[in-house]
Amino acid sequence: xxxxxxxxxxxxxxxxxxxxxxxxxxxxxxxxxxxxxxxxxxxxxxxxxxxxxxxxxxxxxxxxxxxxxxxxxxxxxxxxxxxxxxxxxxxxxxxxxxxxxxxxxxxxxxxxxxxxxxxxxxx
Length: 123
What we know:
The chain is mostly beta strands. It has strands at 18-20, 29-36, 43-49, 58-59, 64-70, 73-75, 78-80, 85-88, 96-98, 104-110, 117-118. The strands form three sheets. Strands 1-2-3-10-5-8 form a six-stranded antiparallel sheet, with no helix packed on it. It is globular and about 45 Å long.
């Protein structure tokens, strides 16, 4: 990589996001694309979950890695806080939502293009 081509986002937890919604959420979440690799299709996002967000159990065709920055996140029945690292294999059923009825901010890294297949009806 050439010098000067690094992607740097200072104060990541406070960075702006835009409203976005997938069918696995009951409302909009905050999303900011940080990086998209044109060769592998890998995508990196800053995600901000609002307090009380409901999510459906789902899976992705790419693996997903989550690093929690602020708040607490419930991931497959376990609650993790700031500094936590979670890796979910491709195709693994998952559910992740903010814990404690508080907002949560995290980085989500997919090793390929993002898709989400809902596995449950309703919230």
